[in-house]
Amino acid sequence: MDLVFGAGGNGEPNERGAGGFWGRKQLPGPQSSIPCRFDFPDELRPAVVHGVWYFNSPYPKNYPPVVFKSRTQVVHESFQGRSRLLGDLGLRNCTLLLSTLSPELGGKYYFRGDLGGYNQYTFSEHSVLDIINTPNIVVPPEVVAGKEVEVSCMVPDNCPELRPEISWLGHEGLGEPTVLGRLREDEGTWVLVSLLHFVPTREANGLRLGCQAAFPNTTLHNPPPLLTWMRDGTVLREAVTEILYLELEEVTPGEDGIYACLAENAYGQDNRTVDLSVMYAPWKPTVNGTMVAVEGETVSILCSTQSNPDPILTIFKEKQILATVIYESQLQLELPAVTPEDDGEYWCVAENQYGQRATAFNLSVEFAPMILLESHCAAARDTVQCLCVVKSNPEPSVAFELPSRNVTVNETEREFVYSERSGLLLTSILTLRGQAQAPPRVICTARNLYGTKSLELPFQGAHRLMWAKIGPVGAVVAFAILIAIVCYITQTRRKKNLTESPSFSAGDNPHVLYSSDFRISGAPEKYESERRLGSERRLLGLRGEPPELDLSYSHSDLGKRPTKDSYTLTEELAEYAEIRVK
């Protein structure tokens, strides 16, 4: 497709080859037309032809301001009510009319043809609109007194519906100006030219000469604008003035954002924006996620905050860093297959150069009961105490079973069971009094909604349990019986040895006399009498049958030493015993 810019009589486009661009000058305030013609292959035969005018960019992906659009009539705010298509697109005429010109409309204008489907094309050829503030006066480089001079005044004339009029200022006494007429410039635009011929004199030296362009039935003065400060569509302050200040006291993060200053009068509008960035410390972090989980589940926790600049976010547990991000407002913590060790208090900390804020949260992991190894039973005199330590969440119910007695004691029976909970640990103590017989088997059972756990509680110090049950008096009696049995066996052996020995024959020799000590504790001479019986035996001239041996027991103070506790060994209760053989 081809595009032609140019101007002929009445604003009709003149033919010109494709390529290049056209320049156009125009005074602010009035109208200006951009003559345009485009072409496309006849075989396309579109049912409807549409067109779009873009400002300063030919590429739609750059989202340039839309000057005119035939499909929707939706245009950029700068061109609302100021653009109109003079040409007929069906006749391949794309002439554009711009009214109420202002300096911000100066720039490049691109046309895009739309024949439907994929037949759309933006022409690289474009028109440049230059908005000038004053007419152009051309003066000869040298003015000589007495020699005729020609001064010209040129004003853009590209508005078919609004033609300018030129008048001279300060030319009194210099002659009447001559209007030459409209001239076509090389760029295809038109200008209105007025010529003034006069013969200068010495007296005219320093005279100020001016040219003025006027448009009938219009007002070209610039009234003061209406200035408005806006933010997010809300008017903050406005006044009819040339300068308007916006003051914000004690700004907060709520004032952060883009502010726009708009200026508008009868000839158009303009705006500028300013981005206000309020720096502040992080807000207290918020935590969203699962706070209660069952053992084995995956837990996802999101910690978020707001600050400027963005903070460093960190999640701790017991002073250990679990996750962290830098210059982001959100942090996700993933805990796959949680265990009871993941239960506890966590901290989310947000920090930047303006301050630090933190939020604590608790993760509760629920799991079946576990009976810990420190659970056991212990006996003291006639009392048995059983300790059952259970780790569980939620809190379990605990029961003590005595299978041999077909008895179950629950933790609710406060007369026998005392329970205390600390964190995830529940400690239950069963107390049984008056247990004169052997202690029973005790099974601790803990259950909650996730399961049941049982354990037979072991007895600590089982080898001492008997002495704890019979008491110190019973221990003395049992020990005395044990000593008597030992002495009886020893004496029987001695009698046998004396009977069988050839040295013990009848005669007049005196009796054999033997003495030994039997020490229970700390006696290095224990059983020494038996060792010396065969080696140190003396014949004292005894004749005939040997006499009978009498046993004599010495005094044994077995209850002399006090009992330290119910588990004191029997050896510690007796001092020693002495046995003599005569």
UniProtKB/TrEMBL annotation:
CDD domains: Ig, IgC2_CD33_d2_like. Its main location: membrane. InterPro entries: Ig-like_dom, Ig-like_dom_sf, Ig-like_fold, Ig_I-set, Ig_sub, Ig_sub2, SIGLEC. Residues 135-169, 177-277, 285-364 form the Ig-like domain. The chain crosses the membrane at residues 466-489. Residues 545-564 are annotated as: Disordered. GO terms for biological process: cell adhesion. It comes from Spermophilus dauricus. SUPFAM superfamilies: Immunoglobulin. It holds the Pfam family I-set. GO terms for cellular component: plasma membrane. Belongs to the immunoglobulin superfamily. SIGLEC (sialic acid binding Ig-like lectin) family. GO terms for molecular function: carbohydrate binding; sialic acid binding. This is Myelin associated glycoprotein. It is found in: Membrane. It is a single-pass type I membrane protein. Keywords: Cell adhesion, Lectin, Membrane, Transmembrane, Transmembrane helix. PANTHER family: MYELIN-ASSOCIATED GLYCOPROTEIN, SIALIC ACID BINDING IMMUNOGLOBULIN-LIKE LECTIN.
